[in-house]
Amino acid sequence: MSHDCLFCKIIKGEIPSQFLYDDDDLVVFKDINPAAPVHLLLVPKKHIRSMNDIQEGDGEIISKLFMVAKQMAKELDVDVSGYKLLFNVEKGGGQEIFHVHLHLIGGWNRRVEKVAE
Q1: What is the model's pLDDT at position 3?
Q2: Which numeric CATH code is attached to 6-106?
Q3: Given the residues 39, 47, 99, 101, the one annotated as active site
């Protein structure tokens, strides 16, 4: 963990946050400046500065981010209506906090019928 990283401080409990999900690898909490009715941040507990800094051994945690995002979308009833998953990478890509995190954004219309397959 990084000593001056906002997300590392949240993970360590130095900055209060209500976790919607918490396990050995990652936490999920609401974005304090939501862009939608549902806006979650999925954050690995391991400090990885940016997607540009992921290593070969980080594949499992990156995959887990997506699996937990799917679970959270279902729990928050946006799985059928739809949602966005977004990584901002580096300053030019909109990254403001330099600790890898996945945005789950949705909830504009939770009553959309499931599309026939």
Answers
A1: 72
A2: 3.30.428.10
A3: 101
